[in-house]
Design goal:
Number of helices: 12
Number of strands: 0
Strand content: under 5%
Distance between the termini: 42 Å
Helix content: over 70%
Order of helices and strands: HHHHHHHHHHHH
Length: 271
Amino acid sequence: MLEALQHEFMQRALLAGLLASIACGVIGTYVVVKRIVFISGGISHASLGGVGLAVFLGIPPLLGAVVFSLLSAVIIGLASDQRRQEEDTLIGTIWSVGMAVGIIFLSASRGYTVDPATYLFGNINWVSSGDVYTILLLDALILATVWMLYKEFLAITLDEEFAQLRGLPVQLLYLILLCLVALTVVVMIQVVGIILVIALLTIPPAIGRWFTSRLHIMMLLSCLLGAAFIVVGIFVSFQTDWPSGASIVLTSATAYAVVGGFRHLRLKIQG
């Protein structure tokens, strides 16, 4: 472990992972409690379109991912309020179209040397100092927004109809929440990639939910668990030469299975 920390790229990777776990734990809690995992999946996969377009235009890929993710979040949020029966179809369409656009632009980008699989499956070892600052900035924006709207988000997460009766702007709050999901997805792209982002967005909060029903404590547990999974996954990747994103997700899934198994056994004994 100490040998790995001697490498500068490992230091950046760990810092980026720890910063990403903050946004992932906070917003992932809303995703799990409000049951919008499929929506989050649509947003994350649509972001590939922004990555591809950015590479084609020669601008930072994360900037393109931000634009496409936010655009997808707004479209899904507005449409879901108007046509809830067609929501799944719309999400599936945005999901597939975003990925198709991204693949087309990436393949058309001459002289582009980075493997597209880097964005699909992640490679935290490639994180630059600029990426770390970007993740830090997005973290600050996400946390500031959640801090200001914590009670409002709590209301629409637990009981949307009651929140509406209280006079809260439910649709606007929902759109803001989806935009925060979109920003979190962008944060996680470098860590585990577009394909695997949903696993790290949902597994830590799902485990945290087994231990508490209080939202702010669940967020804290999710952040700590996400940080632990990322750190362990990075070192597993370093020792085994496995892809970093896959190592992180497998670490998370293993923890989920172990904790879930002990929980089931305990409930069975108590019952």
